[in-house]
Amino acid sequence: MLNGVEHELAIRLRGVVKRYGPITAVDHLDLDVPLGTCVGLLGPNGAGKSTTMRLLTAQSIADEGELEVLGFRLPEESKMARAQSGVTPQLDNLDTTLTVEQNLLVFAHLYRIARADRRAAIERALEMAMLGDRRASRVDKLSGGMRRRLLIARALIHRPRLVLLDEPTVGLDPQVRQGIWALIDALRSEGTTILMSTHYIEEAQRLADTVLIMSHGSAVASGSPSDLVLEHAGREVLEVYGQPARLAEVEAQAKGEGLQTRGTGTSISILNVDGATSFPAGERRAANLEDVFVLLTGEEIT
After folding, report:
1. CA distance 230 to 288
2. How far is Cα of residue 88 from the mean position of the Cα atoms in its chain?
3. CB 34 within 8 A of CB 224
4. What is the pLDDT of residues 17-67, one digit of tens each?
5. Is residue 298 part of a domain?
6. Is 118 within the bounds of a domain?
7. How many C-beta neighbours within 10 Å does residue 56 have?
C-alpha cells in the first residue's frame, strides 16, 4: 500500500493461491507494486515467480484470492489490464521468420496503435532496444542478447503503464546482462512501473526499489534491498575458513551466542557480527542480499 491508498497500486494481490494437482505453486501470496516503482520477485527455481507472472497476465487463473492489475480485477477484466501492460516472457517466442521491424509492426497492430502513430512507436522501440541498425535483420540471425532486447522492445511498443519482466536476463552472459539492465534503468527513469522476476541476486539488488523474496510459493520477506540486508544480516559478516570439524565448532559457538550462520562450502558465514570481537580470526566483509537470500530460503541459486 502506498501512503495508505490502494488505488495508487499498479498491482495488488491478496491471499492468492494457485494449485496444480497436489502441488501448491503459489501459497496465499500478498503483493503490492506501487505505481512508478520497480519491484523484484527473487527466489530459487520453483519458488512460484513465473506462476505469479502467469496469474497477472491471466494465462493461469487463481484458485483463491484477489488480483488487481492497474485497477482491473482479474480474470474478469484481464483484457483491459493487458491493453495497458507489456509482457516479456521468460521463453523467447519471437517470430523467427520475420525481421526485427516486422515483429514490432505485428505487435503495433495487436495493440491497436493508430496507423499514424505506428512508425514513431516502432522507431522509439528500436531506439530503446538499440536495434536501429538491425531493423531489417531476421530474428534468427540475432544474438541471444539482441533477441532479449527485442522481446522487451516488443512489450514497450504501446507505451504501457506496467511492464512485467519474467527472468529478463536468463541464460545471458554478464556483458549482455549489463545492456539489459541499462534498458530497464531507462524504463525506470521514465516512470514506468516494473515487476521483474529473477533468480539473479545481483539483478534484484541492482534494479529493484523493493524485493519480495519467495520460497515454495510463499513470500518470506519484503523490503528494499538495503533494509532487508540490515534487518536479517546486519552490517558485517565474518567468514571463517577451515576444515569441516573446525567449521562445525565455529558454527556451534555462533549459534550458542544467538547468531545465525550460513555455510558456503569451504567456510562458515556468521551474520550480524557488527563490532563483535569474541570470534576466531576470519575475514570481515559487508553483508549483502545473498546472505539474506540463503538465510531465508535455505537454497543456493541455480
Report:
1. 9
2. 12
3. no
4. 999 999 999 999 999 999 999 999 999 988 999 999 999 999 999 999 999
5. no
6. yes
7. 27
SS3 (DSSP) at 258: coil
DSSP bridge pairs for 14: 66
Cis peptide before 75 (omega within 30 of 0): yes
Query: Is residue 295 a part of any domain in this protein?
Result: no
For residue 181, give the 3-state DSSP assignment: helix
**132/153 same-domain check:** yes
* Distance between CA atoms of residues 89 and 148, nearest Å: 10
User: Cell numbers 539482441 correspond to what residue?
Assistant: 146
Domain tally, the chain = 2
Angstrom distance (rounded) from CA 43 to CA 59: 21
DSSP-assigned states of every residue in 186-246: HHHHTT-EEEEEES-HHHHHHH-SEEEEEETTEEEEEE-HHHHHHHHH-SEEEEEE--HHH
Residue 148: what are its φ and ψ, rounded to 5°?
Answer: -65, -40
Which residue in 6, 154, 149, 138 sits closest to 85, CA to CA? 154
Condensed to tens digits (0 to 9), the pLDDT of residues 262-286 reads: 887 788 999 998 866 666 678 899 9
Domain interval for residue 259: 235-286
What global pTM score does this model have? 0.89
What are the angstrom distances between the C-alpha of 145 and each of 50, 140, 156? 21, 12, 17
